[in-house]
Design brief:
Helix content of chain A: 55-70%
CATH architecture of the largest domain in chain B: Sandwich
CATH topology of the largest domain in chain B: Jelly Rolls
Number of domains of chain A: 2
Order of helices and strands of chain B: HHHHEEEEEEEEEEEEEEHEEHEE
Largest sheet of chain A: none
Helix content of chain B: 10-25%
CATH class of the largest domain in chain A: Mainly Alpha
Structural class of chain B: alpha+beta
Shape of chain B: elongated
Radius of gyration of chain B: 28 Å
Radius of gyration of chain A: 19 Å
Largest interface: A-B, 50 and 42 residues
Distance between the termini of chain A: 34 Å
CATH topology of the largest domain in chain A: Rna Polymerase Sigma Factor, Chain: A
Oligomer: heterodimer
Low-confidence stretches of chain B: 56-105
Number of domains of chain B: 2
Strand content of chain B: 25-35%
Shape of chain A: globular
Largest sheet of chain B: 13 strands, mixed
Distance between the termini of chain B: 96 Å
Mean pLDDT of chain B: 76
Number of helices of chain A: 8
Strand content of chain A: under 5%
Chain lengths: 191, 310
Amino acid sequence: MHALSVDDFRQWSLDLQASDDRGFAALYTATSPALHRYIHSITRDAEATNDVLQELYVKLWNVRTTIDPDRSLKALLFQMARNFALNHERAKRRRASDPLDDHAEPADSALPADALLDTNQVEDRLRAWIDELPPRRREAFCLSRFEGLSHDEIAKAMDLAPKTVNNHIVLALQTLRTRLAEFDPSFRLDA
Amino acid sequence: MLDRLPLDLRDALADLPAPEQDALARVWVLAEAAAPAPPPFAPPPVEDLLARIRPSTLPLAHDHAPARRARLRVRTWARMGALLAVAALAAVAVTTWTARPSAPSTAATEVAAPGQKRTFRLADGSTVVLAGGSTMQASMGDTRRVVLTGEAFFDVAHDATRPFVIQARDVTVQVLGTAFNVRAVSGRPAEVGVVRGRVAVSRGTDRVELTPGEQTVAEAARPLRVVPTAHEPGAWRTGAFYAENATLADIAAEVERRYGTAVTVEPSLEDRRWTLALPSAPSDTVVLDALAGPMGLTVTRTAEGVRLAK
């Protein structure tokens, strides 16, 4: 999503208002990989991810005439993705409490602790430490770092105050820096 | 290092001591290569999505009304032309539809007489096997449309930009890229069964989606239901003959379509129901024998056809 400009999203908003399904297809092609990653980070389930992704875009099409080109379509997409994915998780938990449905996979499939010990790659370590961040902090950090959302867009998507988003991202960086410093002393603050 | 941060992150860090800002900026830069592993599968193809949103835009698109009228006029004209062409070339077994780039659509009517089975390749690369006693009109425009009376098996070519829609009795079948069977014979509810991929079947505002192993029978005055297929849809193509709890009248009509043999049934027997599962029925005799023996009927062959009686 880094490469997509505000103008791209504005044009797609106008396409949606005009019920232009080719513009809609272009929007899907350009944005679905990032939303797919985001939804998967919440559901951790292949089938659920694809279902939620499609529901999201079908819903977007259904409400297309109400879309305001002056507001961030990108933030709206991530907001919808998050809400749909969380709704799906809630529905899954309700089903899981039903004794007739006997397999409820835990949403988070944590790696065994020693699975990472045989690699010295800083990136692998970082990836693991990012994964260990508190869920909402990890989510805000990943949207900022890997999906290129602004803090305001993250605030809207996650329904948080912009100040809280700032805090999450700074705290995430501080946690990662601490872990890096433990792993490699050259990352100490005074280095 | 700080200049590699997004502006809003730089603002968020502004109150921290400079060395810490630098350290966190280094973490930010390092983290670039540490994105979480992507999901081990791709998002669904865009045509799946388009197929799900297009039904709502097809028949009632008020905002495109002028364009739609124009297209309809062209299609009607094109269909008349195609009918004339079919009449003139009645001896040609297979008609190919070639979409000229300048023409908005091409249309043709195809007929498989009772006892015939015809295989067509449409201009878009899709394959249709048309069962005996069936008629099909195809128009390959922006939307690929087929109107079917009778039964046909479709293997539809993927084309994200052009939906493939079949009108069969009172149901609309929206194809999401796939192989499936449609049965729309007069006097019987329309039936759709899927072998591969996915199709959406709608009637008015009612809509179901079918995946392999599922079929729907569009019974009058009942919502569309999804039920498991009892037999592979389209097995008639390879000579199978199946009838599920069907009336003798319906089976007789099916024999006539399939083998071109006119079958009359004694009126008192018409509503009797029977189930037949014949994986191989190369001739009407196989079907009629399988019926007559267990049901205690007599089969009389005349010049006009076959008569089933007590």
